[in-house]
Amino acid sequence: MSTPLGRRTTARAGVAAATVLCAVLGTSALAHADNAGGVAIDLGGAGGDGFVADTYWSGGSADTMPTGTPSLPNFGGTVTHPLPAGIWDTSRVGEFTYTIPGLQAGAGYEARLYFLDWYFKHPGQREFDVTVNGSKVLTNFDIIAAAIARGADGQEAFGVEKDFPVTADATGTVTIAFTRDAVDQPQVNAIALVPATS
């Protein structure tokens, strides 16, 4: 059995993976409905391990990593807050927006976005933009190039995490939009909104 911090060899890591993850990171590391008002979403997936099933989206389509794809999702050079292994197995692709309600109005959060490209193998094949609450935070973002820049070998699918501060609007909502840019289309695996700590 693989751990969530190692190479992905099983489709879902299950309870054992969640236990290992919490032991490594502490029980507050994952954002979810029980974590002080945060939320974590399994894009394209059914949820589990503290993540809710794919919800709050408009546009795009769900995709699943092909069985046997060589991958190192929780690569230490690019992922600061590792995810349970199974959450990496699905994604949403295309152009899409997540409008996430139920947050504390005016409160600060850290938006953690997780990317893993199992389709393309080289930089320059997928580049897209990300906007959070109307402000562009990533332009021509290239998942593979970002991983290679931080030490990935370019031979496997490596996970990449990008974190941004965000403030919920007056209705307690955060909106995250993923749009095409230079080539192909966005692909995203998970979103976590973690309450900011003072």
What does the model show?
A hairpin with a 2-residue loop joins strand 7 and strand 8 (about 135-140). With about 200 residues, this protein is mostly beta strands. It has a six-stranded mixed sheet with strand order 2-1-12-6-9-4. Strands 3, 5, 7, 8, 10 and 11 form a six-stranded antiparallel sheet that branches. The longest helix is centred in the first third of the chain and has 12 residues, at about 15-25. It has helices at about 15-25, 145-150, and strands spanning about 40, 50-55, 55-65, 70, 90-100, 110-115, 125-130, 135-140, 155-165, 175-185, 185-190, 190-195. It has a single domain (about 15-195), classed as Jelly Rolls (Sandwich).
